[in-house]
Amino acid sequence: MSDENATVERAKELLVYGPVGLALFLRDSAPQFMRMFVARGRTELDQRRKSVGEQIDQVRTLGETAATDGGPEVLRVLSTGLAALREKAEEALVALGVTDAGTSDAADVAECADRDAAGAVTRNRDRGDLAIPGYDDLSASQVVDHLDDLSSTDLEAIREYEAAHRARNTILGKIEQLTRGS
Question: Per-residue confidence at 47, pLDDT binned at 50, 70, 90?
Answer without folding.
Answer: very high
